[in-house]
Amino acid sequence: MQQLIKIHPKDNVAVAVCSLKKGDVVEINETKITISADVTAGQKIALNDIHKAEYVMKYGFPIGLASCDIFAGEWVHTHNVKSRLGDLLEYQYKPDFETGKQEKSQEFLGYKRPNGKVGIRNEVWIIPTVGCVNAIAKSIEDQSKQFLSPQIDGIFSYSHPHGCSQLGDDQLFTQKILAGLIDHPNAGAVLVLGLGCENNQIEDLKKVLGTYDEERVKFLVCQEYEDEVAVALDIMKELCEYSAQFHRELCPVDRLVVGLKCGGSDGFSGITANPLVGEFSNMLIAQGGTSILTEVPEMFGAETLLMNRCIDEEIFTKTVGLINDFKRYFMRYGQKVNENPSPGNKAGGITTLEDKSLGCVQKGGTAPVIDVLSYGDRVHKRGLNLLTAPGNDLVASTALAAAGANLILFTTGRGTPFGCPVPTVKIASNSELASRKANWIDFDAGKLLSGMDMKSVSNQFFEFIVEVSSGNQNAKSESLDKRDLAIFKDGVTL
């Protein structure tokens, strides 16, 4: 069994595939290395001596600077490596991408909507405009189950604490995210539930929502009725009848929109799960489909890889703004730009933000960047899109859903049970996690460590996603009924 993986010829570190003991002698590329300390799987080992202030290289790029002399066979981690990140940077556009060959689109069974969009679920959603009516929305959800039919995949309400006591961008963020969900094709019909006195008035929300189908979307202001639940149930009956008219039809996969996200990453994420999702994104885009990459702080240190794939200078300029604006957000609050990775990331073998980012951006594959979306924007160009959102799992995944993602591909090395308003497919970076947390994990990318080639695994994964999209299989997050909604906040609460 392979014990160390050297990812790129330029690397001066390798990743331990299994736990290694002090004194173990490991051979890699015909060179024998004596391990100088116990290390767990996913951690890095120096392949040669690295002097203080020299680059530590992984993925063919610097992941930081040696903070002291490091000798061959030593464990390389936070105790002897420091990040190079910090300041705002200036960038030059150096195009480096290929458009790729267009391939014939496969098919899946989806729900064609009157506005031309395609959903992978046919659900009825209840969207509160304000947190004050969350409990009422849940009561309406529970009592509306009587209207379920085989044509409807479920009735769900989505609670959140926002919609009132907000100012400026915070209120707009809330409105844009809610509008994106109201417009989402996975929802056959939607009830928008207001209180009546909140900042986020329904009439104001409608301006952000734009054109909508009055049969598909209904609005209810609770303060206007003596028994708002009884009125809501009458409306829900109508909405369920409307939603029940839809049925699955063959649709080309070029209608799929897929969100790309990672969380609880480990030292294998950038070797297995993230490259696998990147290959899926390449395959989807080659067939005319759309993927969305987000979590901007986890692009820091790898941003030029994305910038040089921008389709033109306009998109390059937007990507520079995406990066530097988020750095300014950190600086505005006196926080370090490189205040990452998390404790779980470090325990799994990720040392610096550059280390994390170079693994993270691989989810975007190699396709050109076709557009850059602000937080709360909805996707309108096919291909690879970048979306402004933080690294937080719930906030970023909600933003991907609101942007129009039919499902989220979520890679993880540590595991997480969460889900967002759309199916959230978990891809394990290692087989131990996939086996131990089988109730959370949908697909095992760890098989790439045991000899399976990327082409075989990516073909398996693509077919699996087609099955999930066609409704032949639920994501584990759906089976666990994990459907959380989180909205970004960056201002004053009144």
Write up what this structure looks like.
Helix content is 28%, strand content 20%. With 494 residues, it is an alpha/beta fold. It has three domains: 4-82, Roll (Archaeosine Trna-guanine Transglycosylase, Chain: A, domain 4); 123-247, 3-Layer(aba) Sandwich (Rossmann fold), CATH 3.40.50; 253-479. It has a seven-stranded parallel beta sheet, sandwiched between helices. The longest helix is centred in the middle third of the chain and has 20 residues, at 313-332. The chain starts with a strand and ends in a 15-residue tail after the last helix. The model has no long low-confidence stretch (mean pLDDT 95).
Calculate the terminal CA-CA distance, rounded to whole Å: 60 Å
Strand content: 15-25%
CA gyration radius, whole angstroms: 24 Å
Classify the secondary structure makeup into a structural class: alpha/beta
Count of helical regions: 13
Strands side by side in the biggest sheet: 19-20-18-17-21-22-23
Summed over residues and divided by their number, the pLDDT gives a mean of 95
> Residue share in helices?
25-40%
Total beta strand runs: 23
Net shape: globular
Low-confidence stretches: none
Largest sheet: 7 strands, parallel
The number of domains? 3
Features:
single chain, 494 residues, alpha/beta, Archaeosine Trna-guanine Transglycosylase, Chain: A, domain 4, Rossmann fold, 3 domains, seven-stranded parallel β-sheet, four-stranded antiparallel β-sheet, 13 helices, 23 strands, 28% helix, globular
